[in-house]
Design a protein that fits this description.
With 565 residues, the protein is of the alpha+beta class. Helices cover 35% and strands 21% of the residues.
């Protein structure tokens, strides 16, 4: 489903483009580097199963956890290779069963089932359309795919969905679409780029997490967000050394985030085991059993004998769970109910929202060296004007003379707290993705950096800033756009906004956030300068004394651009 969405989007964007060769249904079977004499940088050659050969300056490897590209360049994965084996069952319910399952409007997405016939987790992808997945623990070699035949899996699904067997289903039914084994891992690639800095890993090719919190997809999207503008800059440049630094910086940005999210996913997966333990099912017991069966003297027995022993012991371990569905109360069932209730009441259920990690992550050097406290995993997000962090969501007004540049391209907000007599004269935006907005507003065909200057400017300081921007951006072949943020609309005699983008922060939110990060804010009036990367992360943020802009601006701009690329 996701593949079809991506393919359709790619066709709409590039299907008719002569510069884009969109291939689908081909497998990459060989990758090698060519070092032609006329090139200062090796070229990557790719051969496909259709006999086609392609050559490219850069290869983005987004080919999944079993990445052929990653293996071709000999990059290993580091971490826990096998946390748990599982069977993934994809099934689709018919209309009668879908209506029965979705009769309540507040249906959950995740359903953990513990009964005498099934221990597993149902994931409801689209209950109205009947799209479901069931994850069942799998213990090879003492279990085989014969233990998960279509007939046996159907009985497990019935037992898990409705607590009944197929004979009681009446008009309800479902189709099993696939039954596949997979291995849960917690892995991060040792390196995100190859030695020549022309192949880069993205998404699952770079990391694999337990599916507990949605970090795999989110981390992959963040990878792409960080990489896309870097590749765009590289394609504009003929500087081989720039490729080394730009893609190395991608790795130093993203690998610590992946390592952090891998650890978080493992912690969240372990949280899912609390309920199992409350039901007197310990995930360590099957692991211990497989170890015993695989060690002497038990390992001397035929495999078939050990498989039979394992299956019988698992059935015995699950039998007490029948008390949970019994009409007659039992001491065992009461104990389990109290255990589960205690976990839920103490906030020990499975969290799925992690603002601190999803929004508040930082590319600041050394930000992830400290071991995280699991109790803080669900801590809220607090905006920061600090190097490495994303610009906060702050509402700013685009000053009238700046609107003349264009109204299209801004991330316009509708806000009741900023009402104007004539709505056409007011334009309120978010600061979060300012670089992306300015690129669209000013019709740049390449990613841009942004220089935010806080505080009023004189004509002479504006001239100095422009000269510094031209000098540094031309030297580095990197577009840089300036925007001036002031607390109130300028008076006519002080207005220099006609020639620049001017944004009004009437609540002085940005200034307050800047002041919280520094002790250098003296009582004397001063300006501040912030360099913002194309992906919205801050690469430089400094205060500048009044009158010192002319001497400081070039150094600040150079520092901000160089730290990013």
């Amino acid at each position: 489903k996701f593949v079809s969405l991506l393919l359709n989007e790619a066709k709409q964007r590039h299907g008719g483009s002569g510069e884009t060769n969109l291939r689908y249904g081909e497998e990459v079977i060989a990758i090698e580097e060519i070092d032609p004499e006329s090139q200062s940088q090796p070229i990557i050659s790719i051969k496909t199963s259709h006999g086609q050969t392609y050559q490219t300056r850069y290869l983005i490897a987004a080919d999944g956890v079993h990445s052929f590209a990653r293996r071709s360049f000999g990059i290993p994965m580091m971490g826990q290779n096998t946390m748990q084996n599982l069977i993934n069952v994809h099934f689709r319910t018919n209309s009668h069963l879908s209506k029965m399952l979705m009769k309540d409007s507040d249906q959950a997405m995740l359903h953990f089932v513990y009964n005498s016939q099934l221990v597993g987790a149902f994931v409801c992808h689209d209950g109205r359309k009947g799209e479901w997945v069931l994850q069942i623990p799998f213990f090879p070699p003492y279990q085989t795919m014969d233990d998960f035949s279509i007939g046996k899996v159907r009985e497990m699904v019935w037992a898990g969905l409705l607590g009944m067997n197929s004979n009681e289903a009446n008009e309800c039914d479902f189709d099993v679409l696939s039954i596949r084994p997979w291995t849960m891992s917690s892995l991060v690639a040792q390196s995100y780029v190859n030695k020549s800095n022309n192949m880069v890993l993205v998404g699952d090719a770079a990391h694999a997490f337990p599916p507990a919190g949605g970090f795999g997809m989110n981390t992959g999207l963040q990878d792409s967000h960080n990489l896309a503008w870097r590749i765009a800059l590289l394609l504009r440049s003929s500087n081989h050394h720039m490729a080394n630094s730009v893609l190395t910086k991608y790795e130093s940005d993203r690998k610590p985030i992946a390592t952090q999210n891998a650890a978080l996913s493992v912690r969240n997966y372990n949280r899912t085991l609390r309920i199992a333990k409350a039901c007197y099912l310990d995930a360590q017991h099957p692991a211990l059993l497989t170890t015993v069966l695989g060690s002497p003297p038990m390992s001397l027995l035929p495999l078939e004998t050990r498989q039979g022993m394992f299956r019988r012991l698992v059935r015995v371990a699950m039998m007490p769970l029948a008390s949970l569905t019994s009409l007659n109360s039992s001491l065992h069932a009461n104990h389990i109910e109290r255990n589960v209730q205690s976990i839920l009441e103490s906030g020990g259920s499975l969290p799925l929202v992690f603002p601190k990690y999803e929004i508040g992550f930082s590319y600041e050097h050394g930000a992830h060296s400290k071991k995280e406290d699991a109790s803080n995993d669900t801590k809220g997000y607090y905006p920061r004007m600090r190097v490495g962090y994303r610009l906060p969501h702050t509402i700013l007004e685009v000053w009238n003379s700046s609107i003349s540049h264009a109204r299209d391209g801004w991330s316009v907000l509708e806000t009741t707290s900023h009402e104007a007599e004539d709505p056409s004269d007011s334009l309120f935006i978010t600061l979060t993705d300012i670089s992306s907005q300015l690129r669209k507003v000013l019709s740049y065909d390449t990613p841009v950096f942004t220089l935010l200057v806080l505080g009023a400017l004189t004509a002479s300081s504006l001239t100095s800033i422009r000269q510094a921007i031209d000098k540094v951006s031309n030297k580095m072949n990197t577009p840089l756009i300036m925007a001036n943020i002031i607390p109130e609309a300028p008076s006519d005699e002080d207005d220099v906004s006609e020639n620049i983008i001017t944004l009004i922060d009437s609540q002085r939110v940005i200034w307050k956030l800047m002041s919280e990060e520094s002790s250098d804010t003296a009582d004397n009036p001063c300006n501040a300068m912030v360099i913002v990367r194309p992906d919205g992360h801050i690469s430089s943020a400094e205060f500048v004394e009044k009158g010192a802009i002319s001497t400081a601006v070039q150094k600040i701009i150079s520092k901000g651009l160089e730290s990013a690329v």
